[in-house]
Amino acid sequence: MSAAVSLTGRPLFADEPGRKVVAKEPWGRVEEVNDGIWAIVSTPLEKKDWTTLANGGIIAGKERVLVVESFARTEGAAWAARQARELTGRWPTDVVITHYHGDHANGVAGFRQDGGETPRVWTTAATRELLPRGGRNDGRTDAAARAEIYDAAGVLDASESTEIDLGGRKVHLHPRAGHTASDVTIEVEDPSVVFYGDLLWNRMFPNYRDTTPTVFASSIRAAMRERDTVYVPGHGPLADEQDIERLLSVLSEIEAVARESFSREITAGQAATGFRLPESLGEWTMFSDNYFEVAISAWHRELAKEQD
Ligand SMILES: [Zn+2]
Questions:
Q1: Short-list 13, 11, 38, 16, CA closest to 27
Q2: Alpha carbon of 198 to ligand 1 centroid (Å)
Q3: How far does residue 44's CA lie from ligand 1's centre (Å)?
Q4: In this model, does residue 28 exceed pLDDT 80?
């Protein structure tokens, strides 16, 4: 039996055996990845607590501390910042937002709480343009502070990787595309860790809303490494190479049903009805019941463009 199949018996957000959990809350946990690197694994479906919603992480150097993502709510980012201070002795100095979706970006004002100095926020120009600026101050997000921080964000080069030296630890911010038009992966060489943002989903089916399906899989492959690496997905538990291969198989299944339905002029909704992933690919939790339809629609849009 393959590892993929044996995974199916384990609850989606069960603690990973052999990995040290340094903090645990109803919305997520902080897992030690290696010396000075932690992953924030959100568990939104466990208690329906969407404080953080997306995964992220903390990367510490001698002089700077970088937090990956700003999470769904102000309180989520503030919690991540407090975790960083507790674990490293330093309030975050830098924050990278991997793409413009609200669950990765909305909480950014939380980095101003608790007397902490506002960190430098990094993102691509395209992401900065598309970040969610509207909304109310409803206690979940602080729209005015959020807009101010977004406007001051440092813009990453969209054509090549940006190196940030945290002091004895270099981090590469690599522009990519596929999940959205403007994704960034956060990559550390030693120890080998890749924070994928929403280019990687583990045991949770991806949201294709803004996805370019033909680019999605190739971007995933491009960030994979030959050596043992911890891969931090945007959603779901930490991943290894096998988990990524499983996701790529899921993407192939979607491509097949999308291409077939497109050629037979069957709508995405009809194609999604009754569609199931093969059991050999394990269980894939859906954030929303219509995610197959959203995925097939994204493919149909692209195939229609190819025909023009
Ligand atoms: Zn996303």
A1: 13
A2: 5
A3: 15
A4: yes
Residue for token pair 């039996």: 1
What is the Å distance from ligand 1's center to 104 Cα?
7
Confidence tier at 13 by pLDDT (50, 70, 90): confident
What predicted TM-score, i.e. pTM, was given to this entire model? Answer: 0.94
At 198, which CATH number?
Answer: 3.60.15.10
Backbone torsions φ then ψ of 292, nearest 5 degrees: -65, -45
pLDDT digits (tens, 9 = 90+) for 113-126: 888 899 999 999 99
Report CA(259)–ligand 1 centroid distance (Å).
24
Structure confidence at residue 32 as a pLDDT band (50, 70, 90): very high
Q: Which DSSP symbol is given to 110?
A: G
| Structural domain span for residue 131 | 3-307
- CA of 73 from ligand 1 middle (Å) equals 15
Tell me, in angstroms, the distance from the centre of ligand 1 to residue 168's CA.
Answer: 31
pLDDT above 60 for 30? yes
CA of 126 to the centre of ligand 1 (A): 14
Domain count across the chain: 1
pLDDT band at 143 (very low <50, low <70, confident <90, very high): confident
CA of 124 to the centre of ligand 1 (A): 15
Q: How many CB atoms lie within 10 A of CB 163?
A: 9
- Three-class SS of residue 51? coil
Query: Which protein residues have their CB within 5 A of the ion that is ligand 1?
Result: 101, 198
φ/ψ (deg, to 5) at 299: -65, -45
